[in-house]
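ARCHIVE CARD
CATEGORY: sequence design from structure
SOURCE FIELD: tokenized fold
FIELD CONTENT:
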């Protein structure tokens, strides 16, 4: 938070703002104890013990060419107030004459030599950290960021990396410090005084030429130039070139070893006098003609020179140890492109892009999306039922708001500290980054991504009729403009350093997915031209991330959100009896594919995503002819489907978007009838239809948490106004996957369901009493499973219950007694191991034939990877826009 005049920090009274530096704001302040003005630099974060210790060592420096450090507070430095201009401001006016540059160089070297003699390395020497007083005295500033050299430090210690500061230029955002880093510093290695000697040479070159020696349009460009580009010293005066060359020698063994040797070079520098040669006077018009000709030639030369395009660079980043769980594990890159974040199954990791190591930040369960604060100080993610933020330096997560109403689909942190984020099925919300109650910004949409103008954002529509990419104003979001009509799961806007930007999104489906980039005009808010391919086989959702300076991360292959699979029959011994129909399986989905056999076994419903679509519909497969008929066409991604006992109706549910329970004839025309719409668009799933057609059993979750998921019964007969849902079963543990058993024409007798009341999901059976409307359990309860279970299914005659065990087996339990007053089963026995999906997951039991002899599972088209195989590495593209 900015300070105002009159405020106090300890004994220091703020007088006014002097400027901003890499660590924070710098103020003119008054020391009330010594009655003197000082420079007070306030940091964005508190200093640790190590920093304070080293700052105390720097404060011991006493040299006329070093800005004195007077005091260190918990989050501020108190320094000598130096009047005058910085060397950066002096160089902005043009090259410094050689004699003046030599004098400045001598004084800089003297200050560095005094520090080096005490084992202190500056590590951040640059023109902005050098000040020239009105009487010509040179002061080296910001020794408060220095490093006190200690022996025998391991090379892997990246805590010594310097603070990076950003400086705006016409070419875009340049990493101010990066241009003055030594190669070993840019690689994150331990540095010594020779890093200061390199920076001294770069500063000297800039003084003499008024040009930066290493520069680029992005962070990566600048660092790459430092690491590989041969220093161009053509503009350096001949007498100074040996000194500059000795300082910017990439080979440490050949570089100038001691800053004290600068004196020898300066004293040996020859002075070459060039006497003016008198020539006959030339008439003014001739001089003008020559000047115009020269300017014309220069202009022609500039026009005809090819524009420099940074080459596309590719490399891979191995994921940290322990990141072995497959699926859509979230990853992201910081806005400035210097850091990556990755969440494995149980912890959050950070890594410098140019480092070789991942750093564990927190051990907790992370949601499926990560986002950064604009200053890269915080990462925001879902943890449990909350949206939280966490400092990248460590600490505990801080709750921002509750996420109990849906799935967090990412977003962005605005410059005025608002977080704009998507919630699947709810829309786009906004909340203060410091915490509070979120407000709905848009009732529809997800994956919001900001434009660089700070006033607009793009997002993707979730309603099939309105699918595609939209752009909306933060101030007037209710009037969005569709900019890409085709169905898209996620879109990200990536600005270019020289202005403009591209819209990144995925086209195609499954293994044919392509990440494409399309130019976007921020003034007209519309795409330009045709999309160009960037990468292949990229998941359409959470498969890529881009920085604002030309760095792109993406995953491919096994990390895809959809694994092509085939619905397949199996017998009781686990032998495949033949394929039924292909359908996409979501990598992390817990439910099945809304697969249900018709009462006569001649057909089945299943959920399928058609080619080029981003959402699922219900289809009907006819076994005899192998014909597939689309049953719904609105892409609502149904969460469940069940045939009525007479085969005349199909009941299905939609959990998000237009959540509700629906009924439609399997071969009839027209729209589906809405039977029930839950309040607040909460998730709802069809479970079962009674044999007499009187009740529909469904699961309703009020918050999305298992403990808030309960079983309800919807009457299907009688006047419409009386057909209100009845709460059948509600306990503090939660219930789901309710399945009626009743004869084909008879009333429902029993309900099999799952509940975690023992600490994990088990299968239970209770009687069904339609007169009980309180949800309070009545009648006897029988536990079927012993070691965990899910997805219960009845044999049609009620003589057997099938379910899935946590260790991947398909289980069966014989029903010994179900006379209406008591219920008993025998011990559950293993039938066979269920088919393996990706990684450690097993296929869900979709449905069972009426006689209990055949089972439907979705089997991956490719052999799943072994559990011990690590996730494939992340792909990194530098200067990806130059490769379009």
């Amino acid at each position: 938070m900015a300070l105002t005049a009159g405020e106090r920090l300890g004994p220091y009274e703020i007088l006014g703002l002097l400027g901003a530096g890499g660590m924070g704001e710098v103020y003119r302040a008054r020391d009330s104890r010594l009655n003197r003005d000082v420079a007070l630099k306030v940091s964005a974060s508190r200093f640790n013990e190590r920093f304070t210790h080293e700052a105390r060592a720097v404060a011991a420096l006493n040299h006329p060419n070093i800005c004195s450090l007077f005091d260190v507070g918990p989050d501020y430095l108190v320094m000598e107030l130096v009047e005058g201009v910085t060397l950066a401001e002096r160089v902005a006016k043009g090259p410094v004459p050689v004699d003046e540059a030599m004098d400045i160089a001598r004084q800089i070297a003297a200050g560095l030599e005094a520090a080096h003699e005490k084992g202190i390395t500056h590590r951040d020497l640059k023109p902005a950290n050098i000040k020239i007083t009105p009487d010509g005295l040179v002061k080296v500033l910001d020794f408060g960021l220095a490093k006190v050299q200690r022996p025998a430090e391991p090379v892997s210690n990246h805590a010594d990396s310097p603070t990076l500061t950003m400086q705006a230029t016409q070419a875009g955002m340049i990493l101010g410090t990066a241009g003055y880093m030594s190669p070993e510093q840019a690689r994150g290695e331990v540095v010594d005084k020779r890093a200061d000697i390199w920076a001294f040479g770069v500063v000297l070159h800039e003084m003499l030429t008024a040009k930066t020696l290493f520069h680029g349009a992005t962070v990566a460009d600048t660092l790459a130039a430092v690491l590989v580009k041969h220093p161009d010293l053509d503009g350096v005066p001949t007498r100074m070139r040996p000194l500059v060359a000795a300082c910017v020698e990439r080979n440490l063994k050949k570089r100038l070893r001691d800053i004290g040797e600068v004196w020898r070079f300066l004293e040996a520098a020859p002075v070459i006098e060039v006497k003016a040669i008198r020539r006959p006077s030339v008439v003014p018009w001739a001089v003008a003609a020559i000047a115009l000709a020269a300017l014309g030639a220069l202009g022609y030369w500039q026009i005809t020179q090819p524009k420099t395009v940074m080459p596309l660079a590719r490399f891979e980043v191995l994921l940290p140890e322990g990141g072995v769980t497959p699926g859509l594990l979230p990853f992201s890159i910081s806005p400035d492109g210097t850091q990556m974040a990755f969440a494995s199954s149980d912890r959050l990791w950070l890594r410098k892009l140019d480092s070789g190591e991942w750093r564990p930040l927190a051990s907790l369960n992370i949601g499926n999306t990560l986002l950064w604060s604009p200053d890269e100080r915080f990462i925001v993610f879902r943890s449990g039922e909350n949206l939280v933020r966490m400092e990248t330096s460590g600490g505990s997560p801080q709750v921002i708001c509750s996420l109990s109403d849906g799935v967090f689909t990412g977003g962005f942190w605005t410059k005025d500290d608002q977080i704009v984020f998507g919630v699947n099925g709810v829309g786009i919300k906004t909340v203060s980054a410091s915490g509070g109650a979120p407000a709905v910004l848009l009732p529809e949409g997800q994956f919001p991504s900001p434009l660089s103008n700070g006033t607009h954002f793009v997002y993707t529509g979730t309603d099939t009729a309105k699918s595609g990419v939209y752009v909306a104003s933060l101030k007037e979001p209710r009037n969005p403009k569709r900019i890409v009509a085709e169905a898209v799961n996620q879109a990200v806007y990536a600005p270019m350093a020289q202005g403009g930007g591209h819209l990144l999104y995925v086209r195609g489906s499954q293994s044919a997915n392509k990440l494409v980039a399309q130019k976007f005009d921020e003034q007209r808010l519309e795409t330009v031209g045709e999309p160009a391919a960037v990468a292949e086989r990229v998941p359409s959702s959470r498969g890529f991330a881009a920085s604002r300076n030309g760095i792109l991360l993406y995953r491919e292959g096994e990390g895809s959100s959809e694994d092509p699979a085939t619905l397949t029959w199996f017998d009781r011994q686990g032998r495949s009896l033949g394929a039924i129909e292909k359908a996409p399986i979501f990598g992390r989905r817990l439910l099945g594919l809304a697969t249900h056999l018709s009462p006569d076994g001649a057909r089945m419903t299943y959920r399928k995503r058609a080619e080029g679509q981003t959402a699922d519909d219900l289809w009907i497969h006819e076994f005899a002819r192998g014909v597939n008929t689309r049953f719904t066409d609105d892409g609502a991604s149904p969460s469940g489907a069940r045939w009525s006992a007479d085969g005349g109706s199909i009941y299905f549910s939609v959990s998000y978007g237009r959540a509700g329970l629906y009924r439609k004839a399997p071969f009839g025309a027209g729209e589906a009838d809405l039977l029930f719409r839950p309040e607040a668009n909460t998730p709802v799933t069809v479970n079962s239809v009674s044999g007499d057609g009187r009740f529909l059993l469904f699961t309703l979750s009020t918050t999305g948490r298992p403990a808030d998921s309960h079983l309800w019964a919807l009457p299907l007969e009688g006047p419409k106004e009386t057909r209100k849902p009845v709460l059948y079963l509600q306990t503090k543990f939660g219930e789901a996957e309710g399945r009626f058993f009743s004869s084909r024409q008879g009333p429902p007798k029993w309900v099999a369901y799952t509940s975690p009341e023992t600490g994990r999901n088990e299968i239970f059976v209770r009687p069904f009493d339609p007169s009980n409307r309180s949800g309070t359990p009545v009648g006897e309860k029988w536990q079927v499973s012993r070691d965990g279970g899910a997805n219960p299914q009845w044999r049609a005659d009620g003589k057997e219950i099938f379910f899935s065990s946590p260790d991947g087996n398909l289980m069966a339990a014989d029903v010994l007694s179900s006379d209406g007053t008591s219920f008993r089963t025998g011990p559950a026995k293993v039938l066979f191991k269920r088919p393996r999906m990706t990684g450690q997951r097993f296929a869900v039991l979709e449905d069972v034939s009426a006689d209990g002899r055949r089972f439907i599972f979705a089997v991956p088209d490719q052999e799943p990877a072994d559990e011990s195989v690590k996730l494939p590495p992340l792909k990194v593209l530098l200067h990806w826009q130059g490769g379009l």
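CARD ANNOTATION: The chain is about 10% helix and 35% strand. The mean pLDDT is 79.
SHELF: design records, drawer C
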